[in-house]
Each structure stands twice: as structure tokens, then as C-alpha cells.
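stage 2 :: seqdesign
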């Protein structure tokens, strides 16, 4: 039960941070034609998860509960794109280029397809 609460609390914080940062970027840039807020959140999330994963590997700074709170909770709430980036990086680093390429292609293609299907279904209801 503690693990679920850690992920949930982290997810709450990450989601709030995503909302605030994305809104701030849109306000500062005042340019509605491109989703700069989402781009900022996704790139920052990838930078942070890469840095923290490096610390976790090299310095063992996270307990298993700490990893749940930060990696799954906070960063998962902030952006799932960071998890996608880390998983793809891990595949490339372990010389699984085909799996990494497949992951990128499937995530993007199936994600866009799922959005389109969901949109079509919503119009039918």
C-alpha cells in the first residue's frame, strides 16, 4: 500500500509541475501555433530522468521506494515521454538497435493512430 501512495503522491506533484511549467512557457512565449509548453516538459523530463538514472546507476542514491516516488510518480506524472526516452536509450545502449527503432516507430505510429481512432469513436457516439 505504501508503494501505491508513493507513486500517487509523486504523480500528483509531477502533474501539477507539468501544468504550471507548460502554462508558464505558453504565457512567456505568447505563441499559440506550436505546443512549446509540451515540448519543454518532454525535453526537460528526459533530461531529468537521464540525469537521475545515471545517479541511480553510478552512485546508488535511490532506494526502491525513492525510485517509485521519483521515476514512476513524479516523472511519470510530469511526462511519460521521459520513460519512453529512458527505455529507448537503454535499448540503444545495450546494442538492441532494432528493438529501440521498433519502440520509437510503434510508440509514435500507434500513439497517433490511437488518438485518431479515439477521435473517430467520439464522433460516432
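stage 2 :: out
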Amino acid at each position: 500500500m505504501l508503494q501505491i501512495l508513493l507513486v500517487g503522491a509523486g504523480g500528483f506533484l509531477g502533474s501539477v509541475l507539468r501544468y504550471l511549467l507548460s502554462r508558464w512557457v505558453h504565457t512567456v512565449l505568447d505563441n499559440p501555433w506550436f505546443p512549446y509548453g509540451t515540448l519543454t516538459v518532454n525535453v526537460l523530463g528526459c533530461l531529468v530522468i537521464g540525469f537521475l538514472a545515471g545517479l541511480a546507476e553510478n552512485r546508488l542514491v535511490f532506494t526502491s521506494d525513492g525510485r517509485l516516488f521519483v521515476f514512476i510518480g513524479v516523472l511519470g506524472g510530469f511526462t511519460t515521454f521521459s520513460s519512453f526516452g529512458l527505455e529507448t536509450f537503454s535499448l540503444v545502449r545495450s546494442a538492441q538497435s532494432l528493438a529501440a527503432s521498433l519502440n520509437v516507430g510503434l510508440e509514435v505510429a500507434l500513439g497517433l493512430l490511437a488518438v485518431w481512432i479515439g477521435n473517430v469513436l467520439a464522433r460516432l457516439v
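stage 3 :: structure notes
- The CA atoms of residues 43 and 105 lie 18 Å apart.
- The radius of gyration is 17 Å.
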